[in-house]
Every structure is written in C-alpha cells, then in structure tokens.
Amino acid sequence: MVVRKGGEVEIVPLIHLLYIEARGSYSRICYEKEGKQQEAVMSYSVAEYEDMLPDELFFRLHKSYLVNCMHLDHLTKDAQPVLKLKGNQEIPVSRRRYPELLRFLQTKFRHG
C-alpha cells in the first residue's frame, strides 16, 4: 500500500498494515514501521479501502474500522464487543458484525 506522510511517499507492505479508521471523508492508516506504530491520513474512505484490500486478510469490524486479521490478539464480548490487537489497541466491533466476525475467524484460523 502506498501512503503519503508529509512530503514523502511510503510503501507499506500489507502485512505491516494494522487497521484503517474512518475520519470523515478521510481515513487514518495505522501501520508498523521498524517496530513502531505509524499513521498517515489518506483521502480514500474505509469503504474504498475495503474494496481495494484482500478480503482474506482484512475485515470490516464497524462502519469506521477495517482491520488486518494478522494482528488480532483476542475478542471480548461485553455490552460492546471489542477486538484487541497484538499492540493492545482496542477496536470496537459492531454488534451486527460480531457473528460475521466469529465466522470469519473460525474459517481463517481453522487450521492453526
């Protein structure tokens, strides 16, 4: 994925992409670079990224979040389901998407 940060253009391998968060008509791209979390703001919507990125790696948790399933740590279901990433970031999961997320995870991680 190509992101613009300041006056630079960075190439971010998809495996390093953590999640994408909607910010109005923009999106905040969160990714890892050299072991540190970085972010960039891009002018595509989360829906556009959902269409661009491989659905075997990325799942739309909520109207505002698209997450890379390779960085998932665990999922909790309280009044508001929350997905925790390996770096301890917590991302809300819509109650409507929760059953679909469970099916996705069971399919994705069925064989270890």
Textual characterization of the structure:
The chain is of the alpha+beta class and 112 residues long. It has a single domain, classed as LytTr DNA-binding domain (OB fold (Dihydrolipoamide Acetyltransferase, E2P)). The protein has two helices and ten strands; from the N terminus they run E-E-E-E-E-H-E-E-E-E-E-H. A five-stranded antiparallel β-sheet has the order 5-4-3-7-6. A three-stranded antiparallel β-sheet has the order 8-9-10, with no helix packed on it. It has a two-stranded antiparallel ribbon with strand order 1-2. A hairpin with a 2-residue loop joins strand 1 and strand 2. The longest helix has 11 residues, at 98-108. The chain is globular, with a radius of gyration of 14 Å.
Quick description:
The chain is α+β, with helices and mostly antiparallel strands and 112 residues long. The protein contains two helices and ten strands; from the N terminus they run βββββαβββββα.
CATH architecture: Beta Barrel
Within the CATH hierarchy, at the fold level, what is the topology? OB fold (Dihydrolipoamide Acetyltransferase, E2P)
Strand order of the largest sheet: 5-4-3-7-6
Overall spatial form: globular
Structural class: alpha+beta
What portion of the residues fall into strands of 2 or more residues?
over 45%
The number of distinct structural domains comes to: 1
- Assembly context of the chains: single chain
How far from one another are the termini?
Answer: 27 Å
What's the number of helices? 2
- Poorly predicted runs are none
* Cα gyration radius (Å): 14 Å
Which series of helices and strands comes N to C?
EEEEEHEEEEEH
Can you say what the CATH homologous superfamily is?
LytTr DNA-binding domain
